[in-house]
Amino acid sequence: MKGLWLPFFLVGLTAWAVPPGMPVCERPHVVASAEEQPFPEEVQRALDALVRAELTREPHAGLAVGVLRGAQRWVGTYGQRDVARGLPATPRTTWRLASITKTFTAVAVLQLVERGRIDLDADIRTLVPAWPEKHWPVTVRQLLGHLGGVTNYGRFGPSHDSGPVDTAGALELVAGYELEAEPGTRFIYSTWAYNLLGAAIEAVSGQSYGEYLQEHVFDPAGMVHAALDDRRTRDEHHAAGYRIRDGQRVASKVIDVSGRFAGGGTRASIEDLLGFGGALLDYRLLSRTSSGWMQTPMSTRDGRLTDYGMGFATWPLRGHYVVAHSGAQPETSTLLLLLPGEDVAIALASNVEGQAASLKRIAYGVIELLLEDKGPRLSAHRQGPVDAVVNEALNRVFGYGLAYHQWATHGPGTLPGTGELPEAFEQVARLLDRAAIERAPNAARERILAAHEPREDWLFVRVGAHMARTLEEAWGPERLHGYSARGPLAFFNDYLAVCESRHCPEPFRFNEALRADLRRFAGNNIEPSRH
After folding, report:
1. What is the pTM of this model?
2. pLDDT band at 160 (very low <50, low <70, confident <90, very high)
């Protein structure tokens, strides 16, 4: 599974110099509307403690964290948006969003698809004639999934961010470059690809990119302070940017991001960003069907998953279906993470560069705090390299299966695959045959690492999702949520216990060899959990 790539000041005193026990400056937590409610006080304290613990790890300046779960909402802001002027970060502070802008662009494109104005499989040149003809045609769908072969600005050399440019100027920056790969064959993350989509939005809607976002994305989502990041229109609430050099915080390099407009050129407050996440979860910006398209990982022509849908990266995390995008530019680090199967949105923004790992740790900690307090984890007792390969497979069947089940049952997703389930269970059992693994461990592990992908007909997804559905039918959704904390061994043991009580057909019970492995991993001393 891929992971995501992915303050603090008392007055005049940086957080890494704060004496032990002295509280870090923070702003109040706020609730946006009468419909939304605060989390219980003990949860708010735990969220705050989680963030504070992260802030002790390394230098920071300002940070904002927003959490939404159903109708419950929490926002915490910490440190300073402007160190030199002593201005604190607040819920009103706006932050450069960087590549999270791509999610706004993808939403706008899909809105126009819903209205019949854009065809996902149209050649982009039919919408943007200024884009010169290349060796291969590139479709809107491929651009949304970074499968269009368009180069990225990281390959340019000298920066092109020295002054403001319009849409035509932004396209000219990359128009002369040939495609790096045949569209559909390779994932190449590209801000310039999203600029092409921004130009298509303008051509189809008759509005500028910024005007379209304001009317059709920002306003419906209640994003009061969101806008294109034009330095000339920033107010005193915008966060000044910093980077860490030789352990010291210094001012960020000044760049103009208008040339990245649809791929990285917006700003917003933490409340705006959280509101956008909530609007996606509630289907206020896109239909359920379009949301499912947006959140479905795309694949290359040979059936390899890219872990990226349309404007969002996607991956399973301990049985949660994660939909997320990060942002990284001079002045900023940002992250928006959604769990659409569990109605959770997490938004984070820092005015210090290079904070992707820190923001991800906070987000993962929030997930654990809110959703993973259901019981002790069962750890497998492993012996040797074959056990390691088998355990890897168990983790992947569990992780992908539970995540996709939650997403398809309680979110906008659809379970993939076309094969028969009994055959799929038999394939998993053959894949985990100990003798076969011992004969060719590297080949076996490679097959296991690919068994969730389209080229293997989503084998692990289909089997794991059936197991999750069986457990939910037997014991209910709340019990199912507990497996994210309890782990794959509990998931498999409980599934087999339910199968025994229901007299499942033999293929759905795997085979005796795998059942023996599960008993041995559990140490032969843990009875299957029963409701």
Report:
1. 0.91
2. low
Residues sharing a CB contact under 8 Å with residue 438, sequence separation 6 or more, in sequence order:
386
- Strands 248-251 and 242-245, by their bridges, are antiparallel
Unique residue bearing structure tokens 């004496």: 19
Under 8 Å between Cβ of 332 and 98:
yes
Position 156 scores a pLDDT of 58
Q: Side chain identity at 240, as an amino acid letter?
A: A
73-76, long-range: CB within 8 Å, 24+ apart, which pairs? Answer: 73/31, 73/32, 73/36, 73/37, 73/38, 73/39, 73/274, 74/29, 74/38, 74/39, 74/43, 74/44, 74/47, 75/29, 75/30, 75/270, 75/271, 75/274, 76/26, 76/27, 76/29, 76/47, 76/48, 76/51
Whole-angstrom Cα distance, residue 83 to residue 13?
10
Give the other-Cβ count within 10 Å of 85's Cβ: 9
Q: Smallest Cα–Cα separation from 48: which of 73, 69, 71, 65?
A: 65
The structure tokens listed for 453 are: 């992908």
Q: pLDDT digit string (tens) for 433-453?
A: 999 999 999 999 999 999 999
Q: How many CB atoms lie within 10 A of CB 308?
A: 21
- Is the separation of the CB atoms in 155 and 191 below 8 Å? no
Residue type, 514: L
pLDDT average, residue stretch 214-230: 97
Q: Tokens 């993962």 sit at which residue?
A: 364
Strands 37-38 and 72-82: parallel
Q: How far apart are CA 252 and CA 241, in angstroms?
A: 5
DSSP summary character for residue 238: B
Q: What is the CA radius of gyration of the chain?
A: 24
Within 8 A by CB and 6+ apart from 498, the residues are 470, 471, 474, 475
What is the pLDDT at residue 15? 30
Helix axes 421-431, 441-450, angle to 10 degrees: 150
Please tell me the distance from the alpha carbon of residue 290 to that of residue 114, in angstroms, as a whole number. Answer: 8
| Both tokens assigned to 63 | 């940070």
Amino acid symbol at 285:
L
Backbone angles phi, psi at 30, to 5 degrees: -130, 155
